[in-house]
Amino acid sequence: MESDKGKLLDILGNETRRRILILLTRRPYYVSELSQELGVGQKAVLEHLRILKGAGLIEERTEKIPRGRPRKYYTIKRGFRMEVMLTPYLFGTELYEPRHSRRGDIYTEARELIKSTEPVEEKVDELVGFLNDVEAQLDEIMEARRELEEVRLLVETYIGNLLRRVAQEDERLFEEVLSDLRGKLPRRILEDLDGL
User: Fold this and answer.
1) Stated pTM of the model
2) Is the distance from CB of 74 to CB of 34 less than 8 angstroms?
3) Which CA distances in Å does 103 have to 98, 109, 181?
């Protein structure tokens, strides 16, 4: 899994591929459109598309047009969020992919607002207000997540330092404690302690 994240970071590390993905978030594109938008040759665009498709980030569909050859359109295949965490004690990535989420009250409220038959100006105004509320809730969740990450890092660092100290003072006790806790300790701590 970690190597998959590394490959994904490599793929997303290319500016042209990121620009392609940004364009594809707006609407489906075909190769010559992407080439024109990016100012990059079609062969290069096709290679970038091949890499993105191979990573499962985009998909293609062919559409017949009234005159001429069918066109291949590219779209985003799946959404995900990747976070990189870098601290003095660890480097890691987390990948979050949407699952079939429970459709709670907020989802229902969004659907009702979208389906409402109010005049356009009122509808858009309500949707913008709703969107601002969602953004505020997301900000609160992200702040809580940041705080929890800091607390987790603090506690993991303390546990690691404590176990290192035990290892220096009493190797037999360290082996006992490690044996008892091996199934409970976070992977990061275990990897860090493997060299002791």
Assistant:
1) 0.54
2) yes
3) 13, 10, 38
